[in-house]
Hints:
Layout: E1 3-7, E2 10-13, E3 18-25, E4 33-39, E5 46-52, E6 60-62, E7 70-75, E8 80-85, E9 94-102, E10 108-112, E11 116-121
Parallel strand pairs: 2-11
Antiparallel strand pairs: 1-3, 3-8, 4-5, 4-9, 5-6, 7-8, 9-10, 9-11
Amino acid sequence: QVQLVESGGGLVQAGGSLRLSCTASGGIFSSYAMGWFRQAPGKEREFVAAISWSWSSGNTYYADSVKGRFTISRDKAKNTVYLEMNSLKPEDTAVYYCATGRGFPSLIPDYWGQGTQVTVSS
């Protein structure tokens, strides 16, 4: 059973930066991918970014709304994925969820983290 634990959320002013971390326990299949989704109040959960987990590639994929501002990366030795968020906007305010599952770039999550709140003030 894979468990995902996120950290790094918080309150930041517009234009600021935050880095989210997600550590997986229980192992990650090499064919899987990891990614981040977010859900703002009153809205559906949406895809943010994904990174493949296979040994030979670390390809990344981003939603258009965060491209150029967010960077997803991984540390395979630590089973950890990161989301570096720069130039944050109030519309980035949401609960951010880490996920792992099949499919890349169209990640289909099999496991979710508990979520971490990101609030961007104007």
